[in-house]
Amino acid sequence: MAARAFLGAHKAGTLEFDDNFVPWKFVVDPADGRLCGPVMVAALLASQHVLHLPEETDDPGAMRVLLSPEQLGDDPPIADRWSIYHGEPEDVRWAAVWVDFAKWDGVVVDGDALMAAHPFASEEAALVRGLNADTDRLRALCVSVGGMRDVESPLAVGVDSLGVDVRARFDVVRLPFPEEAGDGEAARRLIAGLGG
Q: In the predicted model, what is the mean pLDDT of the chain?
């Protein structure tokens, strides 16, 4: 679970393909756990893809994820989720990527262990609305749980089994749960306990 939590805590990294290293913002597809986002055409034509989280570095605590991309249509449904998280995309081609495996903290982790369908996707919108109903608490959680100094206009954009994603001015802040939520009721309990 620790490796999946690390991956879930990131919504941006450095995508390596051929000899290129480019920043890449992504979201997780609730249906199957694939990582999705806009990409350059050159990335779709490349033979090997590695996602570096949080960035390309020799730090053993960073994660290197080997990916298998698949081009999506011009305006896939996941594009709306991506825009809620990140704003307007610069690239117009969309890809969903399967995680083949990852290397993290000296261990190789199988991709199947890192990708999972969202167990309470149908309840996510209600959980997000509840979080956004109390902006002062959300701002305080970004400081106390998310480690931010201050967040001017926080907006909860996602809740999954491992935590809450909050869109801040320049980044997505992760508010991790202390344990995994198997359903919406468990997520409500963990959200209520955040920062306590």
A: 94
